[in-house]
Amino acid sequence: MDEMAHGVALPETPREFGFFIDGEWRKGRDMFERNSPSHDVTVTRTARCTPDDLDQAVAAARRAFDDRRWAGLPGAERAGVLLRTAEGLRWHREEIARWEVLENGKPISQARGEIDHCIACFETAAGAARLLHGDSFNNLGDGLFGMTLREPVGVVGLITPWNFPFLILCERVPFILASGCTLVVKPAEVTSATTLILADILAEAGLPAGVYNVVTGSGRSIGQALTEHAGIDMLSFTGSTAVGRSCVHASADSNLKKLGLELGGKNPIIVFADADLEDAADGAAFGISFNTGQCCVSSSRLIVERSVAAEFERILAEKMKKIRVGDPFDPETQVGAITTASQNETILGYIAKGKAEGATLLVGGEPLESDCGRYIQPTLFSGVTPSMSIAREEIFGPVLSSFHFDTQDEAIVLANDTVYGLAASVWSKNIDKALTVTRRVQAGRFWVNTIMAGGPETPTGGFRQSGWGRETGLLGVEEYTQVKSVHIEIGRRSHWISS
Length: 499
Ligand code: NAD
Fold this sequence. Notes:
Organism: Gluconacetobacter tumulisoli
Protein name: Aldehyde dehydrogenase family protein
Number of domains: 2
CATH superfamily of the largest domain: Aldehyde Dehydrogenase, Chain A, domain 1
Family: Belongs to the aldehyde dehydrogenase family.
Active site: 262
Bound molecules: nicotinamide-adenine-dinucleotide
Mean pLDDT: 97
GO molecular function: oxidoreductase activity, acting on the aldehyde or oxo group of donors, NAD or NADP as acceptor
């Protein structure tokens, strides 16, 4: 161990990972090196898998699905594996948190909290594995009985992004497994470690070989090949709207595989004059700064009632100045590093555009000076108009744009003035206003007088160009099933041809 960051040892040599097919580790020939975004030390080496590796992973998942080693088990046995995995995650919590920090740059305290959420995902999905069922139709007349069966879709391809490498994985994997499907996962190239670590934990928990397979590599090569692969029955993709669109084309041009898409957002936070302004400002600061704003549900558009706008922005700016940005291994840090150099450039580019387009910078707006690592102070722009690029485009960084409104209808129009519909939040002590806004703003997830609350019991997903389908909760398991309608004749069928 050559270096320490806040008492945590940085790896002396990068940890080398193979990839995981049919219950076995394979060695990569061509390797990708990942530097920690906070410490500029090479932390991992992962394989750049080839199309042949992908074919083998899909074939293993297909065998494991077709011979029913997983789908054929009682739900209770699948639940047992998921519960033992949850226990395994408890044992490996510190290890997983450390690799999330080293590859992603998020604060260690946040990483630990995310793993607790992942444990809850496995426990919730275990319950769902036991309860998953179809329906029956006792109303078809005395001669006919009907029922619906829920059957697993088959082999699922899962592509995940770099912002929540383990959390997004665990909001999908246990629910896919609960349904009886098998899968091939392709994590983001820069944050593959924890997806690979999960392979061993699942195997220790008793998951049969071939059910969970991991291939690593870039999106353009191995990711694209997975979206086009005719051996995949369903693709679950989480990432940008642009790549989501290319998944739709790939599905159409290959085998019309079913798609689950969780894509981008430009999420409104609507603050009425009658809200608890201190509370709402804390929520707004958290909503834009959590995970350095590299979060699909970041509340990046503040829509605040004009009569309190100046006061609210002052309170918010004061709070944002106090956010502790820095080394993610410092347990006091609230906001860590920007995960990739290109994302850092994108965010700084949008800050420059905001200034050039005439928005007023109230706080932040600069990279923080640091010996190593990329850090940006959470930033607030006021006087933003709907045509500005910081108003319309997903920045995926800690940059909040503030708009002002006079009437409830105007607030709703502003909130819906986007191609996205992922998440939204409204702050008001008036139940009529809060509920009207909740019902009229287009978003798959809504928070009233809170933000980013909730667990794996409730489904997540987007309206409009934020995606298709739902993850987590019972709907999140059903998403990976298909419904078969069955009709059973009771007694003698009346004949078509007379005898
Ligand atoms: P991205 O779309 O660039 O990459 C996501 C994943 O897709 C990665 O694994 C990447 O390797 C892969 N990929 C890239 N190009 C591909 C291609 N042509 N074919 C197949 N796979 C490809 O997104 P990102 O930069 O990693 O993540 C940021 C984006 O993800 C943001 O837009 C954010 O809003 C979105 N996101 C959405 C959610 C959600 O739940 N809605 C969650 C997290 C992130």
